[in-house]
Amino acid sequence: MATAAAPSSTVPAGSAIAEWRPAHLAGLVDLIWYYRGPTVNTLKRILPTGRLELVVNLGEPYQLVSGAGTERLASCWISGLQAGPMVVAQPARQDVVGVRLRPAGAQALLSDTPLRVVSGLHVALRDLVGRAAEELRERLAEATTVERRLRLAARWVGDRIVRAGGLDPAVAWTAARIERSRGAVSIGALRQRTGLSKARMVLAFREQIGVAPKLYARTLRFGRTAELLQGGAGRLAEVALTAGYYDQPHMNAEFRELSGLTPREFLARRHPMGDGTTVAEPAR
Question: Which ranges of the chain does DSSP label H, i.e. alpha helix?
């Protein structure tokens, strides 16, 4: 469990940052994170990642500026898989816990709710799981340490996942190979190996993953590209090839379509402490 609390050139004074990748939830949860402290950029652009984000807000409300879903983000919500950017206005000071879910984990967490229902949206968690959402927030608010909050979030997610069924085997197999390649794989070839028709595969993916297989692959490849750019990897042409694009123009076109930015605009607006999933949004 990695934690940063000391001031630095990139961490605002008086802030606390923590990340944890619980091994017992591997394959279902990518990351559990926490941030408490002052806001650096009031507006934040959230980019497609191929992951769903469960957020528990312990401070002042956030506001959805552009995108679809619940406009006032006050308590707990889930952000579904996205095929484009969303912009959120952040409070002056934040106190927030997040769980970055793989589709398989989100599908188990939400049980009977098809993931297509939340795709492209911010949705209040209480609308999906009822009173359990407020119980989660209450437990986290009562916790006195950062580590305790992360472990409580992991326990809540883990308990719900244990009680749920898994993905359809064909969907799980296909999604795993798309994830392993970070989207750089032939969807047609994978589908042929499952024996499913194109229509049946697309329908099953939308229900259990949230989007069609090709779009899921595109968002994962985009996420890989943003991650490489965030980390300062090489020339753009080299990034394009590493991420699995035909060439740099192909990457540029996909990047603009999914984020609303060019790669160079992303580089200019990336957060020094970020992971490539968000960038600063200019004031409007």
Answer: 103-110, 126-129, 132-142, 146-162, 169-180, 187-194, 198-208, 213-230, 236-243, 248-259, 263-269
What is the strand order of the sheet 278-280 is part of?
A: 72-73, 62-66, 86-89, 43-46, 278-280
Class of domain 169-280: mainly alpha
Query: What is the distance in angstroms between the CA of the first residue and the CA of the last residue of the chain?
Result: 37
Q: Residue 151 pLDDT more than 60?
A: yes
Q: How far is it, in rounded angstroms, from Cα 94 to Cα 15?
A: 9
CA 72 to chain centre: 19
Q: What is the pLDDT of residue 4?
A: 41
pLDDT range class, residue 250, cuts 50, 70, 90: very high
| CA dist list (Å): 169 to 26, 49, 208 | 18, 23, 11
Give me the residue label for tokens 């699995």: 244
- pTM score of the predicted model: 0.90
CATH hierarchy code of domain 2-162: 2.60.120
* Residue 270 vs residues 157, 239, 256: alpha-carbon distances, Å: 30, 16, 15
Range list for CATH 1.10.10.60 in the chain: 169-280
169-211 per-position pLDDT tens digit? 999 999 999 999 999 999 999 999 999 999 999 999 999 999 9
